[in-house]
Amino acid sequence: MEKKWIVTGLILIIIAIVLGAFGAHGLKRITSDEAVLTSFDTATKYQFFQGLGFLIIPFITTRFAVNGKAIFIFMLVGTIFFSGSIYGLTYSKVHTSGSLSKVFGPVTPIGGLLMILGWTWLLIQVIRSRN
User: Which residues of 11-45 are buried (b: 16+ CB within 10 A; e: fewer)?
Assistant: First the structure.
């Protein structure tokens, strides 16, 4: 179980760094729209921090005897929905004049909610633990 968390966290971090570098260098060559650049930056930051969370959570779940299955799903799907939809919105605004915004737009808050639920469920389980 711990290995799955750590591998996932490392993959999220690596992708966030690669996309962050693209956003800082390549995307600025494609668009000067500050809103697009800021949104893309937000997606990479959240993905990076979630990746760090994936590295830390196995130690929390082990220490407090917490079942992390649901937390893992909430966190991973939430991160993919949140950051992935923002990447999609950025692509849409730069390459299709925002025509895909109706597809990606509603997904972002769902992803954010799933991340919040994952962290909240972890908190509740830690509080309830006997350790």
Answer: ebbebbeebbeebeeebeeeeeeeebbebbbebbe
